[in-house]
Every structure is written in structure tokens, then in C-alpha cells.
Amino acid sequence: MIVVLVAAVVYQLGLERRGGLQLSAKKIITGEGIKAPGFEGGGEWLRSDELKLDELIKQNKVVLVDFWTYSCINCQRTLPYLREWWEKYKEKGLVIVGVHSPEFEFEKNKDNVLAAMDKYEVTWPVVQDNEMRVWQAYANRYWPAKYLITPPNREIVYTHFGEGNYEETERVIRNELVKLGADVGEIELVDEGEGSYMAGQSPETYIGWQRGMFGDPSSVRPGEFVDYQIMGRLMSNQVYLVGQWKVLEEYAEAGDGAEMEYRFKAGEVNLVMGGSGKGEGFIDGEKTKEVEVSDHDLYKLYKGEPMEGELKLVFDRGVKAYAFTFGK
Asked: Alpha-carbon dihedral of residues 267, 189, 23, 73, nearest 10 degrees?
């Protein structure tokens, strides 16, 4: 019953999977007898004993389930708010459960996830949902996604998909804790901030053949190193390859003389990369950033005044490029 209901709510929202989630998206779900799925079927628990939803509910806990994946910029931007809620309310009856549901294959690696938990100071319990079983039980489709569950009936009383609405989310958390007898009156609400989305901002853009957004898709030959060149003018929000590249399902791997060009609109440009080697970035011909790629992670290429510009990247052989993400 709950799976069908949540799926219907998600369908009605009609949002993009990840890159379009900077804008607020929320839906209140109420109703007697509507129970949240548990975490059974998920994988290994990281830095925590296994948690069971029924036991948490019996302990009179309010449970915030957060679906995330560590290289997602939208998820990364929500983590400071989750950390603040955890610090303020864990002694008041709130339990946060992070469900790490990977988008890319490298995000299934336990060591990568643990390193990310250290980097972003994720100290609440996390279950590594590599087979996406918890994700499927909730009929979830978005990173990040939050589900607030309360006693005594495991009822989902609030959901939020994407970034934003932090103050509203915290007010709902506080309200549910007060219902259970917690005193939160002297705790200040989170500072909402200015948000991370601008009008006309470039969308998340993938670089593997499965979901890639290439300026000349007919020229892409998956699975082998090919020499590419740009024919004609650059269109906005499209990936253009120059030099040797091997385009695989999730990413493109740089070969000799590998370059990439992209016309964007944003105040922040990030690229999910892996492998090893250097990447140099130029915007409208001026060098902006040089990064040393050593881990599979998200790398910031530009942060400054919002602008429209042509980004050119020059890569060492062996660097793997997965997806661009953007911000204000």
C-alpha cells in the first residue's frame, strides 16, 4: 500500500532525477494505517549496528530517512543541514538514517563511502544500499530525498525531494518531537541560506553513452578510443569531445590529447571524475582551475559570479569524466 502511494506522489511531482532538484519539491503524506517500509534487504551498516524501523518506533523515536549518494552535489549541499539537525535533536528523540543508494558504480565501494562520510562529517547511521532495495521499497526516484516517520504507526508524515525548504522541514521535525514530549523551545531554527539555483541554470549533464548529452551524438562510438573533433558552433548544455576518448556506459575516459568543451550558464561548475591525472579548466580562454584527480569524487572547476561562458577542459590520459553539475 505505502509503495503504491509514495510512487503516485512522486509521479505527480514530475521532477527530474537529480540535476533539477535544486528547486523545492515536497508533499505531505498522512493517513491512518499508512506504514513506511523498513530497512530490511539493505546492505551493510556503516559505523553503526543494524537498525530496525520497528524497534526505533517502539523506542518512541522520530526517524528521518535520507536517501543520498556521495558524489551528488545536491546531496552534498543538504548534508550541513542534516548535521545540524542531528546535533540539535538526537538527544530529543530524532534518529537520522542515511540510505546511501549509489548512482555510479564507484559509489558502491565501501571505502569510498567511508571516506566521504569523514569528508562531509556524516556521523549518523548509514546503510549501504548497493542493490537499491531500500530505494525500491520506498519507490524513491530522487537524490536527495527525505521521509519523516513517526510513532506509533510508522506513519510517513512528511517528504521532501531535492534541496531547499530546510526551515519548513525542521519545523515539521520539531512538531513531531514535541508531540512525543520533547522540549525544543530554546533551540534556534536552521538558517535557510540563499539557495543554489539560478534562472536558466545549466542542468546536470552526463558523459557516458547511457545518458550522455553530446553535441554530436551520432559521432560517439562506445567502447573504444576514438579521435573526436568539434564540427560547427557549440550549443549550450551539450558535451563536446576533442582528441582521444573512450566513451563507456557511465563515463568517458581520456586518451591522448583529450579535451572537452561545454557552453554553460551558472555560478558554480563541478565535474564528477575518477581515475588519476590532471585536469585544467579554461573559461572563455582564461585558465580558471587545475585539479589533481586521484579519487572518484566531485571536483569543483569554477565558483564565482554567475555567468554564461565556454568551458574548455584539458585532461591527462586516464582521467574519467562522469557528469557535470552546476550551482548559483
From this structure: 50
pLDDT computed for residue 34 by the predictor: 65
Q: Which amino acid, residue 225?
A: F
- Which pLDDT score is estimated for 20? 36
CATH for 205-327 (2.60.40.790, 1.10.3370.10, 2.60.120.260, 3.40.190.10)? 2.60.120.260
Count other Cβ atoms within 10 Å, centred on residue 277.
17
pLDDT along the chain (328 residues), means of 10: 33 35 38 73 93 96 98 96 97 98 97 97 97 95 96 93 94 96 91 81 96 92 94 93 97 98 97 96 92 95 94 97 96
SS3 (DSSP) at 259: strand
Look at residue 304 in the predicted model and tell me its pLDDT: 93
pLDDT confidence of residue 290? 92
Question: Any idea of the CA torsion for 49, 62, 9, 133, to the nearest 10 degrees?
Answer: 10
Question: How far, in whole angstroms, is CA 16 from its chain's centroid?
Answer: 12
CA distance 205 to 239: 8
Domain 2-179 listed as CATH 3.40.30.10: yes
**How many angstroms separate the CA atoms of 19 and 135, rounded?**
18
> What does the DSSP 8-state code read for residue 51?
-
Strand partners, 19: none
51: Cβ contacts below 8 Å, ≥ 6 apart: 39, 45, 95, 97, 125, 127
End-to-end CA distance of the chain: 39
Tell me the three cell numbers of residue 199. 534562472
Q: Which residues of 198-236 are buried (b: 16+ CB within 10 A; e: fewer)?
A: beebbbbbbbbbeebbbbbeeebeeeebbebeeeeebee
Domain boundaries, the chain: 2-179, 205-327
